[in-house]
Design goal:
single chain; alpha/beta; 7-stranded mixed β-sheet; 7 strands
């Protein structure tokens, strides 16, 4: 991601309604998966370990973050975060190790997303789970994607194909934030005609921030079991299959 956005990322993660609601949605999902206690967890694209405190409820957590500029050298999780990219030979020792791997809005940053998925699949134990979130729909491509250095946005179909690698079985796939689709589409259209772009990540007033987070969670709890055909993000869960799964 571009430097000005990277500098604000930790604060946005901790305060912004979108990150707060996404974390709550993911925690609901993880609780529903019935993970065995005390397992090994890997958070790919973890930043400065921002999700670690919540993930530690479910097991022992490590991370990968190739953007060293996001890391605090004195941060409490620094010794558990590697800056080497997926596929590096040093990760061969982790083959079959992890019961859960999260890649939350990560693979859209990687030129060869299929290779990244294959590398993560190899690090899952049989029966282990991979949770992936990505930005959805190329029609929503905007200035926000550019400052994040995204390579692409996904549909359910293209995410399904990306996760179709040997050893992985897709078990859940759905869109998130369908209510945000119309305003995000409108902002993307407006930004195509403006030299000065509308920013999508600005923090609103505290009351509005709390309200938007709450509305997103209510929407998700109502719609999560319905086949909603659109959204601004997509979420998938895949399981590592094998003789012991």
């Amino acid at each position: 991601m571009q430097a000005p956005y990277a500098a604000a990322y930790a604060r946005l993660y901790r305060e912004h309604w979108w990150w707060r609601s996404r974390e709550a949605i993911l925690l609901d999902l993880i609780r529903s998966l019935g993970l065995p206690p005390g397992g090994e967890i890997l958070d790919v694209g973890c930043g400065d370990g921002l999700f670690f405190p919540e993930l530690e409820r479910f097991g022992r957590v490590r991370g990968i973050e190739v953007d060293a500029g996001l890391l605090d050298p004195d941060g409490p999780y620094r010794d558990r975060i590697s800056t080497l990219p997926l596929g590096d030979p040093s990760y061969e020792a982790d083959a079959g190790r992890f019961g859960l791997i999260t890649a939350l809005d990560v693979i859209e940053h990687i030129a060869d997303d299929g290779a990244a998925v294959r590398a993560m699949a190899a690090m899952l134990r049989p029966g282990g789970l991979l949770i992936v979130t990505v930005p959805a729909f190329p029609a929503l491509w905007d200035h926000h994607d550019e400052i994040n250095l995204h390579h692409r946005r996904y549909t359910a179909a293209t995410l399904r194909r990306t996760l179709d690698v040997p050893g992985l079985e897709l078990i859940r796939l759905r869109y998130l934030y369908p209510g945000l689709f119309p305003p995000k589409y409108l902002v993307a259209r407006v930004n195509r005609r403006r030299a000065s772009k509308l920013e999508q990540h600005a923090l609103p007033a505290p009351w509005a921030n709390r309200l938007l987070a709450r509305l997103c969670l209510i929407e998700d709890r109502i719609l999560r079991r319905l086949p909603v055909p659109f959204g601004t993000s997509a979420l998938a869960v895949a399981r590592r299959v094998g003789p012991d799964a």
